[in-house]
Write a structure and sequence with these properties.
globular; 10-stranded mixed β-sheet; Isopropylmalate Dehydrogenase
Length: 360
Amino acid sequence: MRYRIGLCYGDAIGPEITRATETVMKAAVRRAAVDAEWPVFPMGWEGIEKYGDPVPKLTKDGLSDCHGWVFAPHDSAAYPPEQFQKLNPSGEMRRYFDLYANKRPAKVYPGAARAKSHVGEDVDLVVYRENTEGFLPDRNMYRGVGEFMPSKDMVISASVITRQGAERVAREAFRTAMKRRKHLTIVHKANVIKMAGELWRSSIRELGEREFPEVRVDDFHIDAMTAHLVRHPQDFDVIVCTNLFGDIISDLAGELTGSLGLGPGINTNDHQCMAQAAHGSAPDIAGKDIANPTGLMLSSAMMFDWLAERYKDPKLSEVSRLIEENVLKSMEEGFVTPDMKGTASCSAYGDHIASRIAGA
């Protein structure tokens, strides 16, 4: 089987970290004898300049035929004013492709303690964020947006919670919990957002009782959860959150384990996977070849692991293992970029890991 893995280079540091990640992915694919092609599609400023859209139809059509793709950071805050009427590229991808599950692991990576003094020990958890509903009004409606202004002094924002939406992301979270410590934590605010919070919580609990009785389930209000996560993150295994809460909790977990800049993630529907690091486009260091591509590299490893399970292909599992193990070994050895107290350039970091994979 030939796999199509799309590449969207994005803005600012996007092209740099994507090329480094591409180098590593291709080395792993060759080593595992996987048949793959790598179509490139415009996204961000390239799409605006050529097609008047940061995610043009050409890109959407091309990605529709891909098994997965790497989606680089974008600098949507700097786009021309007329683009502000559209979803940003990340939101557009999640809405257009119904990428309902955002999976973001958070654990202490080798070398993180050298760069950050606040890193906790032995933290290893996964946050699942529902990606298409909740309190993000730019993507929670079939048509239009869930936010409007009846007058110049009033804004009304609608949150959307459905049983289907809660169950489908929770099912992914439960499956991951079954492979780990069989513990799932639901985050909500049912004490004041009563109907929506209770539908979210009860839908997930009932799903667990029906389909995953081996998994221990608990739940916390979002405000309490932030305190617990700071005080004892080691107590958590898999956390499932609504869209807005998941955005916040995953960033907090990433920073607690070293740096949001190291955080990997994937966005999935039932048959496709988008690899996307948790960090932004960092325009202040663009073009300097010092950006850290670790988050995107580990996101690509997650993507291949997800595709391996989806297509029952052990060769893709080997690709994932090769990428993750050699990224972590490079970090252990201290061959890292300046943000990790190293001296390697972004491109040299990618070449070094690819060489390790080729000789592994």
